[in-house]
Amino acid sequence: EARVLSFGWLDYSIFGLMLTVSTVIGIYFGCFGTRQRTKNEYLLGNKNMSVFPIAMSLTASHISGITLLGAPSEMYTYGTQYWMMCLAACIVCAVVAVAYMPVFYTLQITSTYEYLELRFSSSVRSVASFMFTIYQVLHTPIVLYVPALAFSQVTGINLHMITPAVSAICIFYTTLGGLKAVVWTDTLQQIIMMGSSIVVMVLGIIAVGGLDIMWQRNVDGDRIEFFNMDPNPLIRNTFWTVTIGMTFIWLSHVGVNQGMMQRFLSLPRLSDARWALLVFCVGICWCKTVSCLTGLLIYAHYQDCDPLSTKVIKRADQLLPYYVMDLAGSIPGLPGLFVAGVFCAALR
């Protein structure tokens, strides 16, 4: 039978500490830090934010639990072609730095949708804002569902009790602390998320016997593929669909997304925003690489005993939690750190 992650007192403590510190950050900036009396102070952090926390917040806003659980499963099942989206990230960041940022900094607007009103009309702005709202309403429950499901499995707490409680905490510190609270909680959560992912990856490298053994086993299993140049758009992953396709998709997320551009505009100068964009690009590529390497480690670990084929697990999205338990379930606090990392990816 499949071994599942289970929580002990240390795991609950780690997870609870993450939520508590996030809440305290919101209370600090809302009640004790620099008071936020104007729209500029509340929405843009008074335009005096620093590069590092903004870059961490940007990275955290682009990585979700879907990535942390889905990318390793993608590597395990279909191979490394998906990894080429790091090239798409570099292309997108270059385009945004040259074509998008100068426009918004010149206009000094609070919302990206203000540009649509200036360029076209208030009706166009309203339609775009409405479409973005619909997107968020449909997207946010999916992002919350994945970590909530993982937490439910390790604690036994009802899924429909977890999501409202965590959402309420997120809404509380966001509403009370404004952009500064969002940015600094994102920074904390990004560090936890990256830390948990790196711990799992390092343990996996040790268990399999090194990166060279991992790579060879994936070569033997035909999992290494980066330049599938087949132009057929019906193939799951090719060089064209992953790089060119993801470039256009990510332009909407990085170039004109309200949350992303609002963070960029909280920096005092265009040069600062470009530095934050560069760090964001490195951060995204690093997070994707760690997740993809973890997928290759899972494949190398189970090369001769596929948990899906043997019915040990039912779905591919259970691979990473099962792997963590199989690899180091006896290490105190690791399940809590892992689930906290997955949850941090959703609280953005």
UniProtKB/TrEMBL annotation:
Give the stretches traversing the membrane: 12-31, 51-70, 82-107, 127-151, 157-179, 191-214, 234-254, 275-302, 322-347
Cell membrane found in the keyword field: yes
Q: What is its main location?
A: membrane
Entry similarity comment: Belongs to the sodium:solute symporter (SSF) (TC 2.A.21) family.
Q: How does it sit in the membrane?
A: Multi-pass membrane protein
Compartment(s) where it occurs, according to its Swiss-Prot or TrEMBL record: Cell membrane
Q: Which UniProt keywords apply?
A: Cell membrane, Ion transport, Membrane, Sodium, Sodium transport, Transmembrane, Transmembrane helix, Transport
Question: By its UniProt entry, which InterPro entries does this protein fall under?
Answer: Na/Glc_symporter_sf, Na/solute_symporter, Sodium:Solute_Symporter_SSF
* Species, as recorded: Zootermopsis nevadensis
Q: Does the keyword Transmembrane helix apply?
A: yes
Q: Name one Pfam family in it.
A: SSF
A GO BP entry: sodium ion transport
GO MF terms here are: symporter activity
Instruction: State a GO cellular component annotated for this protein.
Output: plasma membrane
> What is the protein's given name?
Sodium-coupled monocarboxylate transporter 1
